[in-house]
Specification:
This protein is α+β, with helices and mostly antiparallel strands and 443 residues long. Among the domains are: 21-112, 3-Layer(aba) Sandwich (Rossmann fold); 139-206, Dna Ligase, domain 1, CATH 3.30.1490.20. The protein has helices at residues 30-40, 71-80, 91-95, 98-104, 114-121, 123-132, 146-155, 179-191, 259-279, 313-316, 324-333, 411-422, and strands at 21-27, 45-52, 62-63, 85-88, 109-110, 140-143, 160-164, 173-176, 202-206, 211-220, 224-232, 235-237, 241-244, 249-252, 285-295, 298-305, 347-355, 380-384, 387-390, 393-396, 400-408, 430-431. Strands 10, 11, 14, 15, 16, 17, 18, 21 and 22 form a 9-stranded antiparallel sheet that branches. A 5-stranded parallel sheet has the order 3-2-1-4-5, with helices on both faces. Helix 7 (146-155) runs antiparallel to helix 8. The radius of gyration is 21 Å and the shape is globular. Mean pLDDT is 95; it is low at 1-15. Bound molecules: adenosine monophosphate (AMP) and glycine. The site of adenosine monophosphate (AMP) has 14 residues, from strand 8, strand 9 and strand 16. Residues 138, 161, 170, 173, 175, 205-208, 212, 234, 291, 302-303 line the site of adenosine monophosphate (AMP).
């Protein structure tokens, strides 16, 4: 790292003799802050840029005001600034083909090409893939005609799950308890186009019961390396009530991700998915995020994402021992089999501090105080999501504002530490869930 960007609180700066790489990270959330923080520790990196970034990322990287979907501008920036590696954090640019655009210009980039990012970009594609290659998942049907979907519902068991085929900001999934709700759901997705063209096609899926686990992995087209497990809390309110959000908090590892679960997934899900993509001539290089449901009859894939999870990344990367840039490069070069991923034998919990009202309407622009409390505190991290600099002050700028992560020897200690640290920062309309990691007590 160069001298004018020293990390605050989130880790000590180090001397790096081999540090020559310039890295560009595309995105602006807590996930990208966690990636930037981890990249900043790489012995290979001299400078980090982030487009567009946020006020926290700004402390360790140079933020450039280019949007994640402005591919041509990003390419020009990468060329002009001799960027050695670009890392794509978000789903939209990946599904939109940013990796193909960078590769066509001879630029080195981490993430799946468009024809592989479809694993997240189309739920119908991913369900058909799982069916074809016998990867365990919920039974389903896909529909392009609302009439046929409605007819099918008359014969189906409730509850049932409706999913918009395309990207819908994580909100395109409707769990319907009654036939009436399900019919309303088909209408809003397919006729009223609540999520635009994402609802041109829908997946109607069997409702599964069980615990959810998120498993992130690195993939190089052929080989896959699994990171430690995590669990997200998607609903806005305590007790898993309220609307679905991007994620209100996470813990890692998941005590429910047992050795048996791991063995099952290694045998039937992880490598099988990578092999299936290769067999379809869509080799996947990048991150595969396996959203798993641990049902009575074994683990099932709920969904795939083609990128790091948010806020899973905020608990997984602080526990990772490897130099992440070496792992990114191994994925690009197809040499992931030579890497041993290592994680600390401890735990981490992330509690999201949101703007009250999220995921619906909320106010922005309130000053955030107390951030300096994290400086020099080993094992405590404040990852910025929706923040920006305004007249030299850091102010709230989104629904999810900060991710407060803390480590501990075990999950309970990590949870205590994380909740303690949520009190260090203040802003008007600060909202958090109070039961992140409550499931730990049931393990
Ligand atoms: P997704 O965006 O596919 O992760 O779905 C959002 C949330 O909906 C998941 O995290 C689950 O809690 C829930 N969900 C999705 N599919 C199913 C299913 N087949 N059965 C039960 N819950 C589901
Ligand atoms: N935390 C869930 C996601 O990133 O989609």
């Amino acid at each position: 790292m160069d001298n004018d960007k020293i990390f605050h609180g989130n880790g000590a700066s180090r001397k790096k003799t081999e540090a020559i790489m310039k890295v560009l990270i595309v995105g602006s959330g807590g996930r990208e802050h966690a990636i930037a923080w981890k990249v900043a520790q790489s012995k290979k990196v001299s400078q980090i840029y982030c487009a567009p970034g946020n006020a926290g990322i700004e402390q360790i990287a140079t933020c450039v005001p280019i949007g994640a979907m402005e591919f041509e501008k990003l390419v020009t920036f990468a060329k002009e600034n001799k960027i050695d590696l670009t890392i794509i954090g978000m789903d939209d640019p990946l599904v939109g083909g940013i990796v193909d655009v960078f590769e066509a210009e001879g630029l080195r980039v981490f993430g799946p090409r468009k024809n592989a990012a479809i694993l997240e970009g189309s739920k119908a594609f991913s369900k058909d893939l799982m069916k074809k290659y016998n990867i365990p998942t919920a039974a389903y049907e896909t529909f392009e005609s609302p009439e046929e979907a409605l007819q099918y519902l008359d014969t189906a068991n409730m509850p049932i799950v409706l999913k918009a085929d395309g990207l819908a900001l994580g909100k395109g999934v409707l769990i319907c308890n009654t036939l009436e709700e399900a019919k309303e759901g088909v209408k809003s997705l397919m006729l009223d186009k609540q999520f635009g063209s994402a609802g041109n096609k829908i997946v109607v899926e069997e409702f599964m019961i069980g615990r959810e686990v998120s498993v992130l992995s690195f993939v190089d087209g052929e080989h896959i390396k699994i990171m430690t497990s995590a669990q997200d809390h998607k609903r806005a309110k305590d007790g898993d009530k309220g609307l679905n959000t991007g994620g209100m908090g996470t813990f890692s590892p998941s005590p429910f991700y047992t050795k048996e679960v791991d063995e099952f997934c290694k045998k039937y899900i992880y490598q099988a998915t990578v092999d299936a993509m290769k067999a379809e001539n869509r080799p996947f290089k990048g991150i595969i995020f396996f959203g798993l449901m641990l049902t009575e009859s074994g683990p099932r894939v709920l969904e795939y994402n083609a990128r790091f999870g948010d806020p899973e990344t905020q608990v997984v990367l602080p526990r990772m021992k490897n130099d992440i840039v070496e792992v990114f490069e191994a994925c690009i070069d197809g040499t992931l089999d030579t890497i041993d991923l290592e994680f600390e034998d401890n735990a981490a919990v992330c509690v999201v501090l949101a703007s009250d009202g999220y995921p619906e309407s909320y106010e922005k622009g309130f000053p955030i105080t107390g951030l300096e409390a994290f400086e020099g505190q080993d094992g405590y991290y404040v990852f910025h999501a929706g923040t920006k600099l305004s007249d030299g002050n850091i102010v709230t700028n989104g629904g999810r504002v900060l991710g407060i992560t803390a480590k501990g020897n075990d999950l309970k200690e990590a949870r205590e530490n994380a909740y303690k640290a949520t009190e260090w920062v203040s802003f008007e309309n600060k909202y958090k869930r109070n039961d992140i990691g409550k499931a730990i007590d049931e393990a």
